[in-house]
């Protein structure tokens, strides 16, 4: 089940569980759309993969036990260990390779 991390790992922007700005890679690294487009060039700085829109977990349990009420979003903030310059350099070195070929 997705953690639904509460922030962008790069700029620390708040990303609520229902945010349409949240993007994730296959390992659930979480970044805001602006950082993915303007800094990372759709390259995850941790695994080298691409990003997709993070799914939104239902607020209301329309099936018993299945909603944010029963599986709340994470409150643990995650931050990248890389500087903006390191993020850009890594993304630039990989961005020419399509995500499915990385």
UniProtKB/TrEMBL annotation:
Q: Which residues form the RING-type domain?
A: 8-47
Question: What top-level branch of life does the organism fall under?
Answer: Bacteria
- What InterPro entries does the record point to? DUF1272, Znf_RING
Pfam families named among the record's database cross-references: DUF1272
Question: What is the official name of this protein in its record?
Answer: DUF1272 domain-containing protein
Source organism phylogeny:
Bacteria, Pseudomonadati, Pseudomonadota, Gammaproteobacteria, Oceanospirillales
